[in-house]
Amino acid sequence: MLHGNKNKRGESKPERVAKVIARAGLCSRREAERWILDGRVQVNGVVLDTPAITTTSTDTIIVDGNEIPNAEKQRIWRYHKPGGLLTTHNDPEGRPNLFDNLPKNMPRVISIGRLDLNSEGLLLLTNDGDVARELELPNNKWQRRYRVRVYGRPNEKSFSALSSGITVDGVHYKSIDVKIDRQQGANAWLTVSLIEGKNREIRRIMEHLGFTVSRLIRISFGPFQLGNLEKGAVEEVRGNVLRDQLSGLDKTGFAKKSIKKNNVNVSKETESKKALKSIKRDHSKKRILKARENYRVKDNYSKSNNRNRLN
Fold first, then answer.
1. Is the Cβ–Cβ distance between 96 and 84 less than 8 Å?
2. Which residues are part of the catalytic machinery?
């Protein structure tokens, strides 16, 4: 049985079954919802046909005939993906994938985003499907940076229009920053920075501009860097580093929700916090009123004594 999040009294909180499956590291929450619709998930022996089901730690969740493992603490690894490996667990054509090339002592992980077959470089792996889903969303504004080798002789004007976005074959891509690092014979090396990271985005845009990508290496994803990590190597991000890098996220791995107040973003307060603040304000008001009343009594008493002396 999966032990989900607990409240302050140690009781298991009801959670959507897809979220529980994702946190167990089997897949992303969206993929878990597809598994449910495909009839692959059971709860207490009943095959689900909708993801709108909540479960607690007392429920038994079965996926493809196997009970899901207990959720572990959130973990993230940096992986230097070589070219020629797919970022998928299953390929109908039986081509090699990166998950089969990971160390045997690694737990089951999923990728945060993807790199296509021929792309190389930094790929983040995690055991938490919810974290994977959240970190790959463009709403986080996490920049992805790539070293890109193209065939051709571009100049600064070649990419000037990309700063305001571009539409290719009906697909709109947001702002992209391209810097020319050096010309090497018939090829040029570029540094490309973007936020979205849509499927084959860089390759399609370069082709649209008349350049063929011959090599593509991701060198950073948000605050995480490829650094000197050797090709094919995997390294876990240490707990303290992970906490520092994910400081803008709450404990579930999701970005902290905020509201605008006087054009300034402030974190949303829970109802209990608001109620507590209200109580404190009330107590404060009572103390002030009581102090004022005591002052008036003392002041009146002092004035009365003074009049008596004068008489």
1. yes
2. 116
Number of domains into which the chain is organized: 3
pTM (two decimals): 0.66
**108 Cβ contact partners less than 8 Å away, ≥ 6 residues apart:** 25, 26, 127
Q: Are residues 45 and 139 in the same domain?
A: no
The answer to whether residue 26 sits within a structural domain is: yes
- Both 125 and 248 in one domain: the answer is yes
- Per-residue model confidence as pLDDT tens for the chain (311 residues): 444 455 444 456 788 899 888 888 788 788 899 999 999 999 999 999 999 999 988 899 999 999 988 777 888 999 999 999 999 887 888 899 999 999 988 888 889 988 999 999 999 999 887 788 888 887 777 899 999 999 999 998 999 999 999 999 999 999 999 999 999 999 999 999 998 888 899 999 999 999 999 999 999 999 999 999 999 999 999 877 777 776 655 433 444 444 344 444 444 445 555 555 555 555 555 555 555 566 565 555 555 555 555 44
Domain limits at 207?
76-258
Contact of 12 with 4, CB cutoff 8 Å: yes
